[in-house]
Prior knowledge:
With 234 residues, the chain is of the alpha/beta class. The protein has helices spanning 40-47, 70-76, 93-100, 107-120, 122-126, 137-149, 167-182, 194-200, 218-223, 225-231; strands spanning 2-11, 14-24, 29-33, 55-60, 63-64, 78-81, 155-159, 186-190, 203-208, 211-217. It contains ten helices and ten strands.
Amino acid sequence: MLEVTGLRVAYGGIQAVRGITFHVNQGEMVALIGANGAGKTSTLKALARLLNAAGGSVRYCGKEISRLEPHQLISEGIALVPEGRGVFPRMSIVENLLMGAYSRHDKDGIAADSAHVFSLFPRLKERSQQLAGTLSGGEQQMLAIGRALMSRPKLLLLDEPSMGLAPLMVQKIFEVIRTVADEGMTVLLVEQNAKLALEVSQRGYVMESGEITLTDEAAKLLANPKVREAYLGE
């Protein structure tokens, strides 16, 4: 579904992403793990066209998308849950969800998808008219994921969904991510919590200093001594 070849991202003279190549198959959940500053978020921002790539190719369902505008990617079926959540703080939960469906015109479908999001996140349903800015960090993360799902994406890009959350909230968030993947969603997951990311994914890529240094099945990466030492604290 997604084929990235030689992707480069630069900030001025600093190379944040150094010509990486990877792919995500349809129906897969793939983890991109690495330490802070490895280039993971820059990679997702380039895929979502929030950053201009300095070079390389990004193909989605066989189509080159590296020059499309961000809003065009929504229509193509790609949605990003950004690092830091990025909810609209002065809008209610319901209004935030409707913003996720802004490119759609099927009222019945939008209503059905809203109900599905509320079934995934009952806490959001309980607070549906509450302003997003008054929610806890975990609730905002739920809302950011729900908002992305409202566009009915084929490919979901998740950037650090566990960041800053309490363990119980992280567990809930990842239960939903796994449920969404089980429903057939293709997911590219950027996550600093390597153990958590690899436990829910089929394959993984390890990123260091802007380069992909290791790739394998997720279970094999979990058992890899280098990965365990560098990212699992062993």
